[in-house]
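Technical note accompanying the year-one report. For the benefit of new consortium partners, we illustrate the data format agreed upon in the data management plan: each record pairs a sequence with a structure-token string. No post-processing was applied to the example shown here.
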Amino acid sequence: MTSDRRMTHNLEPRPRAKQLLWLWLGYWLGLFIIMHVPVSGLRRLSFNNVDKIIHLVLYFLLVWLGGRYMFVAGRAVPIAKLVGYAAIYGLYAAFEEWSQQFVGRTMSLDDWLTDAAGITLATLLLALQRRSNAFPDPSRRV
């Protein structure tokens, strides 16, 4: 009977996948909030490119967390799917830049391009990691 149990597939997400899902969604919500806080009362950052570095890292982490969730959840992740998700993230980043004008911040093409660079880097990393996840080890416990 135990062999029959191993043969059936459980469609419920794995516990670690649920944790990653909540982490990813919470991070995305936090990112939205941070990007819409008015900066008029905040001090300017001390060196010129720190804003771009922050944008790159924040969007890199958003995409990477989403990709890791897909991997841990056991979802098939073909390259076309990764590229499609990257396009969605890019559209979201454009929306986010556009919507900042309503909270006293300014839109910036440079910020969006930096967001797109973070999205691209994370997508490339996920594509490389995808190869190592293509043939899961059946003895690996999750």
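Partners are asked to follow this layout when depositing records. The chain has one domain: 15-133.
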